[in-house]
Amino acid sequence: MADDIKALFFDVFGTLVDWRSSIARETDAILKPRGIAIDAHAFADAWRGEYGPSMEEVRSGRLPFCKLDVLHRHNLERVLPRFGITGLPEDVMVQLNLAWHRLDAWPDVTRGLARLRRKFQIAPVSNGNISLMVALARRNDIHWDAILGAEVAGDYKPKPGVYLAACAAFDLAPAQCMMVAAHPFDLAAAAPLGLRTGYIARPNERGPGKGDNPPTTPVDVTATSAEDLADQLGA
Amino acid sequence: MADDIKALFFDVFGTLVDWRSSIARETDAILKPRGIAIDAHAFADAWRGEYGPSMEEVRSGRLPFCKLDVLHRHNLERVLPRFGITGLPEDVMVQLNLAWHRLDAWPDVTRGLARLRRKFQIAPVSNGNISLMVALARRNDIHWDAILGAEVAGDYKPKPGVYLAACAAFDLAPAQCMMVAAHPFDLAAAAPLGLRTGYIARPNERGPGKGDNPPTTPVDVTATSAEDLADQLGA
């Protein structure tokens, strides 16, 4: 199978980067000096909790496509008052919203992707926007061949067009591409389109022991890390 | 000025890669073994000659956007008979068309861009499609932050939307971006939109001594190579 695959497409939030710890750290770093003390992990969870519903507004056609930074900002404004925070200056709001550009990769990711790139074309197929993906790649020393995903497709996963636009951008048939994610819903959306699927377990994504359950639908590869995926794909 | 600039956008054909020598070499490599001998440089010139007019069909709205590989194929079919070549098998036509994915960079490019990337975000803003840009980057060891340009914008340079889409993808104002090209028309299109401009002279693009004349409109930087550009921008 690995020899037929030409490109690997990666989910990013949760699969490659530890958004929860990073958002909590960034939030504390911004709010504590202003005398604001909150449960930063609960705040990260609440902010992330608005992620799916906000994209659904776009997927359903009720809102035109806008980049994820815009949805994150909208969601931030909804979540802050729940933590008793109001009236932050605009520059602080901008800085806080860009916390999503400062997420750290899981420890296996930089080396694993560098190995995988020797054998495959690699691209993020994330719901994050291009500038966000660029910032995360620079921060975590990832060399993508291209930034694909929601902003290039003009819609959000798991809409089929996002996966198919990525295959088309690389001039590849879906069967020559593998979607890699820690989230079964992502793989379950890609598989019927003909893409291969790779599951990387991230059991601590939403806190210790709080990751997605393994897929209940068949996947082509199940890995414990990006380096394990490289091992299994012969990269 | 250099400290205000956050991103450099590069024209590719001619500015970074020597399309003429490369297309001639690839054409010879494919046709000679089939007993077909032509003036491969004249063939490269003729094929490239169809480039502008074919994009104009899209820019004018007479044709919907399609990627450059498709236009190259269309143009190839127009040009081959002029050299007395007909009836090539489909696999040879595909291989020949993908000659544009196998272009060599000018000797200063790989090192120059590596230096520039330490200080700036860098992306191609080319009329070439994403897969073509990926192939050239891999061949010439270029680490782009993202692939921007025509396919992401859905139109061809010098339409303003292509430059502005690149700025928007990076969340930057035009004044924070520099368009770099060997072609004055490209810089003349970017400058009125607010982008900074960098000219790299490629006096041999269309053969010895046959490059574009230097710009007659003001540019911010005039360089002799990507490494010279890095010197001048302090990278």
Structural account:
2 copies of one chain form a homodimer. Chain A is an alpha/beta fold. Chain A folds into 2 domains: 7-18 and 104-232, HAD superfamily/HAD-like (Rossmann fold), CATH 3.40.50; 19-101, Putative phosphatase, domain 2 (DNA polymerase, domain 1), CATH 1.10.150.240. Chain A is 43% helix and 11% strand. Chain A contains 11 helices and 6 strands. Chain A has a 6-stranded parallel beta sheet with strand order 3-2-1-4-5-6, with helices on both faces. In chain A, strand 4 (177-181), helix 10 and strand 5 (196-200) form a beta-alpha-beta unit. In chain A, helix 1 crosses helix 2 (40-49) and helix 6 (109-119) runs parallel beside helix 11 (226-232). At the A-B interface, helix 7 of A face helix 7 of B.
Top keywords for this entry?
homodimer, 235 residues, alpha/beta, Rossmann fold, DNA polymerase, domain 1, six-stranded parallel β-sheet
What's the arrangement of secondary structure elements?
The structure is a homodimer of 235-residue chains.
Chain A: E1 7-10, H1 19-31, H2 40-49, H3 51-59, H4 68-79, H5 90-97, H6 109-119, E2 121-126, H7 130-140, E3 148-149, H8 150-153, H9 160-169, E4 177-181, H10 184-190, E5 196-200, E6 221-223, H11 226-232
Parallel strand pairs in A: 1-2, 1-4, 2-3, 4-5, 5-6
Helix pairs in contact in A: 1-2, 6-11
